[in-house]
């Protein structure tokens, strides 16, 4: 065997081995749906590209705008879908009629000095994808899903967030019909900041509720996650 042939074999074989049962199921289901006329290959490509490019930036801008504009803040907490449209998020995209897993009731949860919200899907991984993008891997794990509803303060501390005892922690459970996003408190030391400056420190984790906005901590920083004290296997 030549060196070239040996390298070629090493390159191809692991790619075959890495195909999971879920990937095989997705391919089979996708091909069947196309065969039955539920959608076309072009429609599937459009949706896939849409799903891959969405992220939490519009949600960060929504919160920053709400911090600066009391009227917009009132809109955000009373009609979150309308507020989302004002920052460029249409929950009917990209199909024109939404998707079964995303076109649902959407609510923005406003934190106060005595109340902190955090979101979870205790059953699976329900998440407001049109405005936050795809959920982080840890959001879908049993350790997060099952433990947050039982020991919320402990789980938050594992993300590095320790709240005072006089702050109530309220866990909101996303489900088939409802999606949530957190509007955290504006941090001290941001007086006079522009909307762009504020949006930069409102990270995805702040919008889930496992972190607080902090000057100097931006979307590009991966927070330290501590090991679970009571892990679930």
From TrEMBL:
Keywords: Hydrolase, Iron, Metal-binding. Fe(3+) binds at residues 121, 124-126. One of its GO terms (molecular function) is transition metal ion binding. Residues 21-211 form the Nitrile hydratase alpha/Thiocyanate hydrolase gamma domain. InterPro entries: CN_Hdrase_a/SCN_Hdrase_g_sf, CN_Hdrtase_a/SCN_Hdrlase_g, CN_Hdrtase_asu/SCN_Hdrlase_gsu, Thiocyan_Hydrolase_gsu. It comes from the Bacteria. Belongs to the nitrile hydratase subunit alpha family. NCBIfam families: thiocyan_alph (TIGR03887). This is Thiocyanate hydrolase subunit gamma. The lineage of its organism: Bacteria, Bacillati, Actinomycetota, Actinomycetes, Mycobacteriales.
């Amino acid at each position: 065997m030549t060196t070239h042939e040996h390298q070629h074999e090493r390159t191809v074989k692991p790619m075959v081995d890495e195909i999971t049962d879920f990937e095989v199921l997705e391919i089979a289901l996708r091909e069947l749906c196309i065969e039955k006329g539920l959608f076309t290959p072009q429609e599937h490509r459009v949706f896939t590209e849409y799903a891959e490019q969405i992220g939490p930036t519009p949600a960060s801008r929504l919160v920053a705008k709400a911090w600066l504009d009391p009227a917009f803040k009132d809109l955000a907490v009373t009609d979150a879908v309308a507020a989302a449209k004002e920052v460029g998020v249409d929950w009917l995209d990209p199909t024109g009629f939404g998707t079964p897993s995303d076109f649902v009731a959407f609510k923005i949860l406003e934190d106060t000095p005595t109340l902190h919200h955090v979101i979870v899907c205790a059953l699976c991984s329900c998440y407001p994808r049109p405005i936050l993008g795809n959920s982080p891997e840890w959001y879908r794990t049993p350790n997060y899903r099952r433990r947050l509803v039982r020991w919320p303060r402990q789980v938050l501390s594992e993300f590095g967030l320790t709240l005072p005892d006089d702050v109530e922690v309220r866990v909101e459970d996303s489900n088939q019909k409802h999606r949530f996003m957190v509007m955290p408190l504006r941090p001290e030391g941001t007086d006079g900041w522009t909307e762009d400056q504020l949006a930069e420190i409102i990270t995805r984790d702040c919008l889930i509720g496992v972190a607080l906005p902090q000057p100097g901590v931006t979307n590009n920083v991966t927070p330290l996650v501590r090991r679970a004290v009571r892990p679930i296997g």
